[in-house]
Amino acid sequence: MSEIINKYIDPLSDFGFKHLFGAEPNKDIMIEFLNALFDGQKEITDIVYSPTEYAGDEKEYRKVYF
User: Which string of b and e fits 51-66 if b means at least 16 CB within 10 Å?
Assistant: First the structure.
């Protein structure tokens, strides 16, 4: 059985969207995407990324993702 290796990332998948838009190095891509959505109604000039994972104090609250 051969493994299928894709050359491109699907931006509609959860992994693809997070990879393309969810990290500081790709901030400019996210800003352009948001500005295209607002279509001139608003203009985003900067965004701040917050941590998406919270390692809770107790065992049952560890690995919470936002």
Answer: eeeeeeeeeeeeeeee
